[in-house]
Amino acid sequence: MRSVGTATVGSSTINLTKTIVGAGMLAIPFVFKNDGVLVGVLLTILAATTSGFGLFVLAKCSKVLSNPRTSSFFTLCMITYPSLSPLFDIAMIVQCFGVGLSYLVLIGDIFPSLFGGKRNFWILASSLIVWPLCSLKKMDSLRYSSIIGLLALSYIFLLVVSMFFINTVFSENDLVERGPVNWLQVYSWKGLFSSFSIVIFAYTGSMNLFSIINELEDNSMTQINKIVNSSIAISSFFFLSVGIAGYLTYGSNTLGNILLNYDQNSPWLYVANFCLASMLVLSFPLLFHPLRIAVNNLFVYFRMKQAMGEQPLDLSDNDEENENQPEDYYFNSSAASLVATATRTSMASIVMTIDEDDINDDDRLLASSIHASDIDVDNDMNSDIITLPEPGEEEQHVSFPDYRFYAITFSVLPLMYVISLRLKSFAFVLALVGATGSTSMSFTLPGLFGYKLIGSDSLAVGQMISKRDNFYKKCSLLLSWFGIIVMLLSLYVTIKYGTEN
């Protein structure tokens, strides 16, 4: 029986926007310092456009599944690049782990300035709130904490913009020490790619998109597009406003965290730091949610490979015969079945022709049975080569029993906290994670999935790929290459030069 979502477009937009708009907003003025106003604006728009398109591609790929509510990176990997599934989940882990670490580092920097005490004490104390929130299973359960987080960020946004007008626009003489401002020129070419990776980091929201799609009450592409477009538009407004206002206030003196530029004794900054600290604590679960899923996917994948080597494959659904088997039998059987399905579909290609008049929505073949590498996407082809599923076959959900849910939660969380106690550089973490995990999640993986899957549902019913889908496929391939190039250049610059606060 297929699950039914309960999340609304409004709550989903809030969760996706809060996933995107986070601590990365504080580093956007630093990006403008390196790039100048014109290039900074252009790169921000480029990141918004490409990241938004990546979200759109992932949503469109989920629609080729017979049940889009089972969509996940793992599901798409198993019908496109099954042997590379671990690499994709590792990219997810790098992204979410790095973002989570940057949040914990900021918690350790901010709370001592608010209430006194040592940095490590406050990082550990935050676990009293973070850990219970991370124990919630549904993304939609976090909508209220997301609302609080957005309200907190709205105050910071108003502070940065207000201080710009007070100190610069409405003051005859600048009330703060401002360095030179570059409107058209790039201040630091060596920091250009490194700072661009920070913008990409700020726009990353793909790790929670599938959870949002799965829980959405009406998960049609029309509703998903509303969520994606609204979230990207709101995020861009926040980023551009804070980036330009913060940079024009301090010029070349802008630091990696814009709040560090302000008078640390100001009551306005005290409130801003309290809002930021609250946002970090309440938003951490939004980042941990996809991290836990990726860790579980890795576990399931390697158990699947183990099951393939340990026992003969029994793909029959004989419930009576399996009734008395132990729990591991069920896991190994379903795991082996999923691997066997991916293997079988790559070997059993046939040519089919279907009269379009005989097709209805309920007769559409399962796109998960298509081995995408066997599909010729050229619209001039004479026949569509696809793979038929076994009768009654459907995409399989990745098992995530309660015991493993809590085992992963309370093993990964302590590891993140231990590392955060020794980590100091906020800007460097953002740049490094943005150069690797963010580019992979925002560009490379969506592009690879889109190139393989978009239009495959048309091929499955003997139809030609539409011109629009063919265009999306080509753009997806370009997006993937764009991600690879940006990742290599940004990673090189970040490692070689680091970031200067």
Describe the 3D structure.
The protein has helices at residues 9-20, 28-35, 37-62, 73-80, 85-115, 119-125, 127-134, 143-169, 192-203, 209-215, 221-250, 267-310, 319-322, 327-345, 402-420, 426-453, 456-460, 467-497, and strands spanning 349-351, 385-387. The protein has 501 residues and is mainly α. Strands 1-2 form a two-stranded antiparallel ribbon. The longest helix is centred in the middle third of the chain and has 44 residues, at 267-310. Mean pLDDT is 74; it is low at 311-396.
Write down the overall mean pLDDT.
74
Shape: globular
| Strand fraction | under 5%
Main sheet specs: 2 strands, antiparallel
What is the tally of helical segments?
18
Rounded radius of gyration (Å): 24 Å
Strand order of the largest sheet: 1-2
Pfam family, one: Aa_trans
Protein name: Similar to Saccharomyces cerevisiae YIL088C AVT7 Putative transporter, member of a family of seven S. cerevisiae genes (AVT1-7) related to vesicular GABA-glycine transporters
Subcellular location: Vacuole membrane
Organism: Maudiozyma saulgeensis
Element layout with pairings:
Layout lengths: L8 H12 L7 H8 L1 H26 L10 H8 L4 H31 L3 H7 L1 H8 L8 H27 L22 H12 L5 H7 L5 H30 L16 H44 L8 H4 L4 H19 L3 E3 L33 E3 L14 H19 L5 H28 L2 H5 L6 H31 L4
InterPro entries: AA_transpt_TM
GO molecular function, one term: L-glutamate transmembrane transporter activity
Organism: Maudiozyma saulgeensis
